[in-house]
Inverse folding.
């Protein structure tokens, strides 16, 4: 069947693949939130600038 070295190699492979999968899920969920926050902040600053120009 499997030698101990092959078993360890398989476990390391599964761990690396699993870590990559969860990192991908994390980045897919965080990056849109981050970009949305930046856009919202820029929008608020523009509104404040326009408000100060009118005064």
């Amino acid at each position: 069947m499997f030698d101990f070295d092959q078993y360890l190699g398989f476990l390391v492979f599964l761990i690396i693949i699993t870590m990559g999968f969860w990192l991908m899920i994390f980045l897919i969920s965080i990056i849109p939130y981050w970009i949305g926050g930046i856009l919202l902040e820029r929008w608020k600053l523009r509104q404040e600038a326009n408000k100060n120009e009118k005064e």
The chain has one domain: 1-45. The chain has one helix and no strands.
